[in-house]
Amino acid sequence: MGKIIAIANQKGGVGKTTTAINLSSGLTYQGKSVLLVDLDPQANATHGLLSLGESYQENSYTVMMEEADIRKAIVHKEQPKMDILPSNMSLAGAELVMDKIDPGKEALLKNQLAKVQEEYDFIIIDCPPSLGLLTTNALTAADSVLIPVQCEYYALEGVTQLLLTIRLVQKTYNPALRIEGILLTMFDIRTKLSVEVSKEVRQNFVRQVYQIAIPRNVKLSEAPSRSLSIFEYDPKCSGAQAYQQLTEELIKRNKRG
Ligand SMILES: Nc1ncnc2c1ncn2[C@@H]1O[C@H](COP(=O)(O)OP(=O)(O)O)[C@@H](O)[C@H]1O
Ligand SMILES: [Mg+2]
User: Fold this and answer.
1) Which of 7, 10, 17, 18 should be mutated for ligand 1, with most atoms under 8 A from CB?
2) pTM (2 decimals)?
3) How many other CB atoms are found less than 10 A from the CB of residue 253?
4) Using a 6 Å cutoff on CB, does residue 12 contact ligand 1?
């Protein structure tokens, strides 16, 4: 059974999508089969890997609403070799419609992923920057949640709120949900702030924090414009090395059980 990891933080611009794309890709280079689920109406993961022009009429939203078959909606990409359940703008109104489904509105994604979970080693969910019903669906479907934290002022603001949401989902819908880890992103060794923030996060969350911090690296922001992960775009850059290390660390932690 594939492990389902939600990448969540209700703050925008902290590196969720960049991590979703490059962790998914990193896992495929380790021989794992991966499905990347784009649950953000902004569809950044979708457009960072697939063609910009396309609007994907069958997507994570129509699948959750049972208007499309998940197997038909999934797009197969060759480079990097992974499957993608795309998103499109229709997800923007999703929460309003989904909210009326009762009971079971929080388990729409879980029910659909269950149909394909056996076919993958990992299913990575890229969450939107909010703690609404879409993120609740991701947390209900997931085995664990990976939290990117940007090395900036107020980095921890919001993480407390996210942890409360996680606890609530554990209590009501998904008692087995675990914290996969906290990932420091956009780390810049030259700035005092980055160093201070990373110190603070490591003091607060100790072993939950990944050893590797993802450095600020412009190549990471360029790769999506070519529909590539960092491993095809520039495999030698510091961003690629860091995401490679994250992938290895994550696999190692999962072996330890
Ligand atoms: N380590 C990094 N170095 C440089 N730019 C980055 C890095 N991580 C993300 N970015 C850029 O920062 C912006 C926000 O990142 P993104 O992954 O989209 O965040 P989120 O999904 O949390 O909103 C994007 O333009 C992305 O390309
Ligand atoms: Mg995003």
Assistant:
1) 18
2) 0.97
3) 13
4) yes
- Residue type at 217? N
Reported as a single tens digit per residue, the pLDDT across 79-127 is: 999 999 999 988 888 999 999 999 999 999 999 999 999 999 999 999 9
Phi then psi for residue 71, to 5 deg, are -65, -35
3-class SS at 183?
Answer: strand
44 ligand 1 Cβ < 6 A: yes
Residue to mutate (ligand 1; options 25, 187, 221; most atoms within 8 A of CB): 221
* Tokens, residue 162: 């996210």
Other Cβ atoms closer than 10 A to 160: 10
Q: Which two tokens stand for residue 43?
A: 């569809």
- Cα–Cα distance, 234 to 238 (Å, whole number): 9
Question: Which residue's alpha carbon is at the smallest distance from atom 13 of ligand 1?
Answer: 13
Class of CATH domain 3-256: alpha beta
Spans of all domains in the chain: 3-256
